[in-house]
Amino acid sequence: MSRFLSYTAILGLVIALIVLDASWLHFTRSIDAKLGDTLLAQRAPSRPASDDIVIVDVDQNSLTKLMGELGNWPWPRVAFAEMLEGIDAQAPRAVVFDILFNEFDTFRPDSDVAFREAVQRHARSYFSSVLLTDGQGPALRDLPPVLKLITLPGALPNARSPLLLPTLLPRDAWRGGLINFSHEDDGIGRHYLVKETLAPGWQMQSLSARIATDLGWTVPDQHRIRLNWQQQHRHVSFSDIYTDLNIEHPKRPPDEFKNKIVLIGTAAPGLQDLRPTPLSSNFPGIEILATAIDNLQAGDWLRDAPRWVSPVVSVLIAIGLWFGFRRGLNTLWMGLGMIVVSVVIVTASATLLSHNLYWPVGSVLIWGWVYFWLAALMAYLAERLRREQAVNLFGRFLDPRVVKDLVASGQVDDAKRVQSLEITVLFSDIRGFTTLSETRTPEYIVNLLNRYFSRQVAVVFRHGGTLDKLIGDAVMAFWGAPVHDPEHAKHAVAAAIEMGQELEEFKKELTDLGADFDIGIGLHTGRAVVAFIGPENRLSYTVIGDTVNLASRIEGQTKGVARVLVSEATRAACPDAFEFIDHGSHAVKGRAEPVQLFEPKPKSTSVGQQKEQ
């Protein structure tokens, strides 16, 4: 499969997963929620809470200070009666109890009576109700009008609902609404109820929505709102106010709660009204109610971005990455680009929050990175395969170190193209090999050639040459391709000289041959076509052209003249690197004009250097 088809297949897979996730599976929903929680938690401290909302907090300090006077929790209801009297005297806009009053105090009935009487005198008080998950409950049509239940067309006349109502109070004082905790599948509360269906055709507002309706604020016609969290509201300890109300000369301001919405509730850990929210795993329930009221007052609850936005953006990012990988862009740069895109998307999401728009981007980031890593893995595997193929392909002709450099430099693709280059070609042949092979066993000849070729090819590789082929007893090599080498003539000549030196070392091992074993080496520099030639499974990297023919002809002129001969073109390409002995002009086959030939000798000051080349 081509890389284009591979990247396209991955793109199709990711798009299919994006569509399935958005429409059915929702397996990135939790990631969306967690990232959204993080952004909301970071933003909350910069959003001031409304000064119109004050929480009278039954905190741990209150439980401790009032234990001697009121005893353990739950306190006698007369304490709330006194609190309601004292606060309502300051003309608040509303006094809201985030405490259930659905049970009578059988041990202190007079206290309950005092509270009921106080509630009847103060019409600005609101009370909490809870919708249970099961049970029969009261008949909805019999509930008092003060609850302002919403009836829809087709409402069942005999419907019942398992409601916990403030039955301690007179029925005409049941003003208020539901305080059910609205949480998602992970248990985190990110929304607040606006209204809830009690039975088919019957609805009841939440406590926050009921207050908003009575105060004339805009209440959205929806099931719930997404809370826009802010700093916590001003808390006043219940014990501080209660103590101040019961002294002869109060010290607190007489208008402390004037025109305020006063919420009375519990935040003490032992009273178990702590809930998990984006801000904390133990967030006071009274503060959640205050946040909902604050959002409705300001009209700044969070509106959800259209559901199609995230999958569309995810698909666009995947397509952008597909284009990049298809064009062969560097994976590292693609990764850096994805980091930039991720930062931009998260920043955009955070910016939209300041405009009360909630856009969850966890899924967008996940799908973008999923495609990136899958495509990057595909690119890595393709590159690894390409490198392995290049090593296998060029490893037959080049020194492994040269192959490694060729692959690392990214010149492999260039090397595979047909090119016309300036190169230097070397031919080396064993003299008298035919006679030698007739006087020795085949096993001896093969062993001899293998040892000889191992030494000579090592010299070619050591000087950066490319082994073209071994032809019987001959070696053909060239310099200048596939790795670009501006000093190819110099390196080829240096290799030829060392091949002669290596032969002398080898001859010391041939005690039975002595002086009969020798070689001739010819070199020529010029342009030639360099390419892979042959069937797919037998490709040969070789050179074609007159340069090759002339190098072979020059090797044929070495007998009786010199072990190494080079052409005028080769000598001219490296005139200062060696000393050259002019051996005059020679007629060669295929050439109308004679060829001037030279024998290279290492300079006395550069012998060591030649060895190092």
Question: What report would you give on this structure?
Answer:
The chain has 20 helices and 24 strands. With 613 residues, it is α/β, with parallel strands linked by helices. Strands 17, 18, 19, 20, 21, 22, 23 and 24 form an 8-stranded mixed β-sheet that branches. Strands 1, 2, 3, 5, 6, 11 and 12 form a 7-stranded mixed β-sheet that branches. Strands 4-9-8 form a 3-stranded antiparallel β-sheet. A hairpin with a 7-residue loop joins strand 13 (274-275) and strand 14. The longest helix has 33 residues, at 362-394. The chain is rod-shaped, with a radius of gyration of 46 Å.
Task: Give a short overview.
The chain has 613 residues and is α/β, with parallel strands linked by helices. The chain has 20 helices and 24 strands. Helix 10 packs parallel to helix 12 (362-394).
Radius of gyration: 46 Å
Main sheet summary: 8 strands, mixed
Q: Estimate the mean pLDDT confidence.
A: 90
Helix content: 40-55%
User: How many separate helices?
Assistant: 20
Could you name the ranges where pLDDT drops below 50 across 5 or more consecutive residues? 606-613
Main attributes of the structure:
613 residues; seven-stranded mixed sheet; 20 helices
How is the topology of this model organized?
Blueprint: H1 3-25, H2 29-43, E1 53-58, H3 60-65, H4 67-70, H5 78-88, E2 94-97, H6 109-121, E3 125-131, E4 150-151, E5 163-164, E6 176-178, E7 191-193, E8 195-199, E9 202-205, H7 207-214, E10 224-226, E11 234-237, H8 238-245, E12 261-266, E13 274-275, E14 283-284, H9 285-298, E15 303-304, H10 309-326, H11 331-353, E16 357-358, H12 362-394, H13 400-408, H14 412-416, E17 419-431, H15 433-438, H16 442-462, E18 466-471, E19 474-479, H17 488-507, E20 518-533, E21 540-544, H18 546-556, E22 564-567, H19 568-573, E23 578-586, E24 595-602, H20 607-612
Parallel strand pairs: 1-11, 1-12, 2-3, 2-12, 3-6, 15-16, 20-22
Antiparallel strand pairs: 3-5, 4-9, 7-10, 8-9, 13-14, 17-19, 17-20, 18-19, 20-21, 22-24, 23-24
